[in-house]
Amino acid sequence: MIELLIFAAVYAFLAVLNLYRLAKGPTAADRMVAGDSMDILVCCAMVLYSLYSGRGIYLDIAVICAMLGIVDTMLVGRYLEKRRWLEK
Amino acid sequence: MPKTKLPAVLSTFCLCFGFWVLLTWKFTAQELIAGAAVSLAAALFASPFFIHENAFWLFNPARLGALFAYVFVFLGELVKANLDVARRCFAGCKDVNPGIVKVPVDLKSDYAEAMLANSITLTPGTITMDIAEQDGKTYYYVHWIDVSETDREKAGEIIKGRLENAVRRIWP
Amino acid sequence: MRIVIDILVAAGLVFALAGTKGILKMPDAFCRMQASTCITTLGTLGVILGGALYAFFVMGSVGTGVKVLVIGLLIITINPVGAHAIAKGAYKYGVRPDKDMEIDDYGRDFNE
After folding, report:
1. Which domains, ranges and CATH numbers included, belong to chain A?
2. Same domain as B73, residue B37
3. pLDDT value at position B1?
4. Model confidence over C76-109: pLDDT tens digits?
5. Which tops the pLDDT comparison, C92 or A42?
6. Are B91 and C19 in contact (CB under 8 A)?
């Protein structure tokens, strides 16, 4: 089905749009939010492309992508929480 | 370091092994034995960190039925809130009225509190920021995109909706 | 069946579009977090359900469909933890909304 490829391309395009907020965002929290949603959009695009092409390897990469995307968000969140205390 | 207990290790092992079977989806003896060994190692390492109560409490038919009902209640709330936030986004992102509300919660178990907090966070329009305990009662600090009610009890009714009753039916 | 799959994925796409527009246009950081939740929930749920139906009924491969469902379960159960951490961290770091908030209990309790 060619529609799956088109949908995957649109999801990837939305991820590229998030890159604008990732580059511009005034604070670190904005950048992290944009990065997190970019990660999830890329994961969705990967699932759709894997179903289109019929290759299972992209699904495994999507699992790892979904798991590791959370780790960096939590890491930056904890760092921001403690950083003001460290600077005093 | 807390002491490892058998039920905690066993429940973590079941979780890990279930995920192994779902992800590989091959039922040869070799795969299953390798999965069991890896899950046992992971369970021995990780069980003191995230099993603090009896996790097998969930496994009886009434609670599984309540969990099933909870999924549908949650999906209904999710679709309603999603439509609301999507309408705000397409309408130009100007009619937002944010605020942080302190909401009282009346739940006993730790799992129930975590489940309700995650459900509130997962519903678009509300994010749980912190959990505080004062005088034996539990409070959530919820960031809310459209504050229509500044009284805390009524705001809690609007935010939690039917979710709290559905959660209380699973973890009394 | 193909029409059902197309409708599901397209509905997910509409919500993902709304979330992306919210992330680009919303006035402050916390409202952007709310918009990104829209992507996480229905934006992925449409793709996951559509993809699982495609794998089960068009490809006829049960293992692939189950793996797609596991990806959806992982995203939906794990992601609120990250949102929670980033919201709390941003507030403690000193990120504040542009205009005055209607009610701010967290600042009242923890920030004097």
Report:
1. 2-87 (1.10.287)
2. no
3. 45
4. 888 888 888 888 888 888 777 766 666 777 777 7
5. A42
6. no
B145: Cβ contacts below 8 Å, ≥ 6 apart: B85, B88, B96, B97, B98, B125, B126, C31, C34
In a domain, B100, yes or no: yes
If asked whether residues B48 and B116 sit together in one domain, one would say no
Q: Looking at the structure, do residues B76 and B40 belong to the same domain, yes or no?
A: no
Is B111 in the same domain as B28?
A: no
Same domain as B35, residue B76: no
pLDDT tens for each residue of A52-73: 988 888 888 988 888 888 888 8
Is the model's pLDDT at A87 over the cut of 70? Answer: no
List Cβ<8 Å contacts ≥24 apart for A66-69: A66/A39, A66/A40, A66/C71, A66/C74, A66/C75, A66/C78, A67/C74, A67/C78, A69/A35, A69/A36, A69/A39, A69/A40, A69/A43, A69/C82
CA distance B17 to chain C (A): 13
In total, how many domains does chain B have? 2
Whether residue B58 lies inside any domain: the answer is no
Residue B140 counted as domain residue: yes
Nearest to A29 by CA among C92, B19, B99: C92
- DSSP single-letter state for residue C28: S
Say yes or no: B75 and B156 in one domain: yes
Summarize the confidence of residues A10-28 as an average pLDDT. 88
* Contacting A residues, span 45-74, partner chain C, CB-CB under 8 Å: 47-48, 51, 54, 56, 59, 62-63, 66-67, 69-70, 73-74
Host domain of residue B42: 6-52
Q: Which residues of chain B have pLDDT under 70?
A: 1-4, 50-58, 172
CA distance B65 to B60: 9
Indicate which of C62, C86, C92, C110 best probes the interface with A, i.e. most A CBs within 10 Å of its own CB: C86
Residues of chain B neighbouring C84 (CB-CB closer than 8 A)? 117-118, 121, 127-129
Q: For residue B36, what pLDDT is reported?
A: 92
Same domain membership, residue B31 and residue B105: no
Residue B137 and residue B107 share a domain: yes
